[in-house]
Amino acid sequence: MNLPKRMLVANVAWAQEIARRDPHFFSALAAGQKPQVLWIGCSDSRVPAESVTHCAPGDLFVHRNIANLFHPDDDNTMSVLEYAVRVLRVAHIIVCGHYGCGGVRASLLPPADALPHVNRRIEPLCALVRAHRAALECLPSEEARVNRVAELSVIEQVRLLREHPLVRESAPAPLVHGWIFSLGDGQLRELASGYDPQTAVAVAAA
Ligand SMILES: [Zn+2]
User: Fold this and answer.
1) Residue 98 phi/psi, 5° resolution?
2) What's the chain's average pLDDT?
3) Which residues of the chain form CATH 3.40.1050.10?
4) What spacing in Å lies between the alpha carbon of 48 and ligand 1's midpoint?
5) Catalytic residues
6) Predicted confidence (pLDDT) at residue 43 exceeds the cutoff of 80
7) Host H or E run for residue 179
8) pTM over 0.85
9) Is pLDDT at 141 greater than 70 in this prediction?
């Protein structure tokens, strides 16, 4: 059986299992969505939002892109944010980065000729690397630099989101949080809490 076929078969088993455990699950799902969280994460296959947080269909409104970047001038990103804030009225926005991120690693390397779109997307990361070059050069390894930039980038996306009029001027404004996922042990770490906005500053200065 080929892979897409295996996925379709698995879907049938999944739907049957969910319906067996909760006969009303899919009728409730079909009735509409009321997620409380907008998740902005990396496209990386190893960081599936629902799986790592034990969330179910209907819990998360999700936007994923290379290196979990918030681009205020990108219609894809902005349409998701606009709908999440103005229609779904999410209470929380979570930016979730991860250690070992390939998009972040690319920002520390010369641009790849075969990846013009990626190069353009990660330009804000490259700017972040330039701004922190001295501190990054003091780190002992490329891995450490990649992971530090991943942390700094989450903080930066949180800052951009908090400052954006769509977020700032909505009432009540959703709380913006910054998390990072560790591939090595599957755990999430909070870098910035929407309940205590000063924590992000402390992490950025560390
Ligand atoms: Zn990534």
Assistant:
1) -150, 150
2) 96
3) 33-205
4) 11
5) 42, 44, 46, 98, 101
6) yes
7) strand 175-181
8) yes
9) yes
